[in-house]
């Protein structure tokens, strides 16, 4: 995309002499940004605009045009695009709105436009976007009121208005950007294309995204995960609550997918999720300039005890921990600090400290092996010039390039010079302890992602695919999508997922001989395609321990069912071995429109919803992802043997989850699967799927 | 304290001509703040300081002195204080450090100082503090480098350095203060004295605190709860994690109490807790100027869809909900907004909106009964002058004084004028959606506190106090503090707390007749003052259902116990009715050093610690507080009948908690109580305390 961001020549089609028009703003912004290539305003009714010769059309421009910025009314866009194609333009930046986002005709118009773009082998940003900025070229092809400061953060935004707000905010925070692109309706070039390009871009150290929707989650995960170890990619997803998603739908016409799927997708892709706009940038500023530290390698330094306390509180609340200093560090600190100072982490050099004491302490901390990052907090005092401290920090950073330094100067006007000096010298600046802690957390999360080995996907082969095919064929033949419990359990068994011994009995006598064969006690359950919630209609009897009870139960169940669901088609009654007690877990699979199959694991029984102790992952999973999935639940503490409880058969559980994974990979037409409970026993004693629901996609 | 904040005359003892000395800064700050009363520098070695006649001593000052600011070295402070007493000074502001915070001699020196202050009927701020500011007087008796902006927020801080940081930060954020006091070691005047004074102060609309410790929590709750409905009181507690508390201890020498007790205390006192410095001020700015809205009365308005989405997301995440507009509001919006606008809440007037459209929409929302608060979000565009919007907002606020308006203009330099205009006209300004949402949450929490009726404390009278006295006497006589289970259960029974039928058997035969009388199945447990954890030594047998089993169990338990704890003194074996299954809950009582008795209620069994599903409250509790305590746990959903489960006997549970409450009120020497599990049955079937541990204070 070099020709988009560093074009030799740019045409602005729809350039205007009227300062209230966007066509004027864009041309002026390109000129003001110091763009040194050829710039051609296109406007059939003007001779000259802003001192530049204007052309009546793209065709009439003498030289080549790399990029055409289009701001003509929507009804003319198609013609202009075609002309651009003929002219050999490489990139279109379509600012004009009135496409997919307005629905109806707009959707059609956007499809047409995309067809033209493809036909001429061009690429397009937008339509319905703010434009594109490159601070290193430099060029500002947007109608924003402000150019970005030069820096090393790339920002991709699905909302143009958000770009204007961010540019304004960043001007105050002295945050610099390498490139900014407003992707608008992203009809052609999507966030993925820009992520890939920016992670290769030498001017970019961190890639930021604001998105409301991702159209193809599976592709996103596949492509993004290949580049997120090169450069940190941080995302803010708009529309994560119902209210937000509703607003998102009316905003860009994009369907906001379910949060769990997005989160699982981002996790798999190695994308860091921010939960707010400020968090997005607090992460970015640190990730674009500092090496990521270990979770327990953080030192806090301040000239104010209160700031030490507040910072330590927030770090710990975020799950980080303060580094334990080496003993020689402690000795050194004792020598250079007064007795009222706090020399253990956090280090309080106290209010009467001058810059020398502060910086000596900083160097002492940086030279400690156990310290990966130092947070330098400051409260304004008469004895310290913040600019002196800033200069010292920048010097020490040069001496210790592998250590992260983050400045947390709490205040305002006292630091205006310091902010600028620090940010220009790639030391992240924050004015509040909470923001500083957020930034460190971002670094640590990225460190842990970088340290994570690439997963190896190994398929499970000792499974009976033929048997599953047969069962699914039968279900399809009968025109059903919901499987009977007996069918679901047969499928599970075919994939080595343990289920209780069971038999589908067609009569009381049949049931008795099944029970005698299986062994008491047994459970009996109605089997009918018309009954999903068996308990509600008296379709289940448990704890049956004799042939008489089997006979009674059979009749009672049939009676109940015919009473509640008179026209239910009854296939028989499932006689099943009653299972021992164990730890109740739940496994569920659903299919997300954007991200495909999503697996859930967590606490079973009433605790599933009460404590929402569940975690999600996308299928396919490698073994490490299964372990990660289990490890993200609280029930895993119980399975590992909590407070003297016996250790559960985690190995078998892991194996079962891998088998479910394989089943879904082999039969993606299974769009819903629910094992509740999956009962887990002590180590060596396995686990068992007691109740299984399975639903197929509508036949294709 | 009028004489402290609006003194007619002030002496600065230790005033200096040397600009690098604190004694210079303070005098200069008082002069620069525009103080119009009499100002006396006291310094025996100077004739004149900063153009003012200097006096060799307090005595030598001709007129009265209301307040003396003391900055002499710590060894002279006592003499100066005595002289101030003789002179009739009312208030001392002791800036000087070197007292309690340095330990040893310092502690003694502080006690002496306090004695003198009391002897002369003076009051003192500090020692070891930054000083006092009143922007309305105006007077700045601090050595901070900056005077506060005039406003309506009072700020009390245990950390002086934090005040300097906050002053600097507030200068940028245009936040105004009425009064600021750095309480330092708070030897005499504490946060409580200032809370009481500020909630009566006509210049103050909200009271802010930063504290690391509260010395007398019980007194704090009693006195603070009397004033928190007059004005909102918001607190930031430093040292809420172990790391933070460690830093706090080394910082001011104050012992940071346990978080749960502080939280319970603040809740009871009606104090709003902030979790970070920025949250403290985000709450404050809103609470100092806007009427608090209902939780579901919030409207969001913006010219940027992205900001609508992000704001809606965060509001919902914080448990707030967007107002549903009246149908005539929707109709009006349809008329004044273009078709691409979003007219349901959040309202997006879209990017091409001018100030007129934006403000018309705002008025439409304000005129809707279902809307209590409007969040006005803005992204910078060429079509809107933020100052125009600001002026419009201020006008509309005058027209709708009972509605809250909070501005969320996302950006930086574009809004510099707007920030100042809005803040000066009492419209809270925020530059990020997350901060805006935080502010609204603060308002809503205060609304709910204001609406909460005053609790009535009613004592439970059908209890047998004499019986409990007898049992405690026996325990005391034997020199024990840990009660036997039989004793704890007898105490519970005396207070109407249901326990299983039990009998303390001294022999196997004794046990058999007890079991026959109680009825099978029974549980048998060792009773020994030397054994706390009965399970660990094989001291418990459950599910015993015949006389033979009773005999066997008796011998086995005795054998186990004598094997594991050979020298254990055995009082006998408790034979107890085995209880039916039910919902497992836990009740615990501990005594906090600062806040007194703290009660915990929550999920019992392994879930207590795994899910940390527990809530805390201070004793004494009114019935409403018991209900609130239960309602703050997740297990309460189960008790209320979750997903078709039977409703539990919540009434009886409430009654039991009130009886435990009464027991602790009557016998505060019980410093620990643990009922685990307290098993709760279906409505009408009560509950039962299965295992009770009780510990008394060391004898007095």
Average residue pLDDT of chain A: 94
Largest interface: A-B, 94 and 96 residues
What is the terminal separation of chain A in angstroms? 39 Å
Uncertain runs of chain A: none
CATH class bucket of one domain in chain A: Alpha Beta
| Strand neighbour order, sheet with most strands of chain A | 9-8-11-10-12-13-14
Radius of gyration of chain A: 32 Å
> Considering DSSP H and I runs of 4 or more, what fraction of the residues of chain A is helical?
25-40%
Count of DSSP-assigned helices of chain A: 24
The chain-level structural class of chain A is alpha/beta
Q: In oligomeric terms, what are we looking at?
A: homodimer
| CATH architectural label of one domain in chain A | 3-Layer(aba) Sandwich
CATH superfamily of one domain in chain A: Succinyl-CoA synthetase domains
Would you kindly provide a written description of the structure presented here, covering whatever features stand out?
2 copies of one chain form a homodimer. By secondary structure, the first copy, chain A, is an alpha/beta fold. Among the domains of chain A are: 298-443, Rossmann fold; 479-577, Dna Ligase, domain 1 (2-Layer Sandwich); 583-696, D-amino Acid Aminotransferase, Chain A, domain 1. Chain A has 24 helices and 29 strands. In chain A, strand 5, helix 3 (74-87) and strand 6 (91-94) form a beta-alpha-beta unit. In chain A, helix 11 (305-317) packs across helix 16 and helix 19 crosses helix 20. The radius of gyration of chain A is 32 Å and the shape is flat. At the A-B interface, helix 5, helix 8, helix 10, helix 11 and helix 16 of A face helix 5, helix 8, helix 10, helix 11 and helix 16 of B.
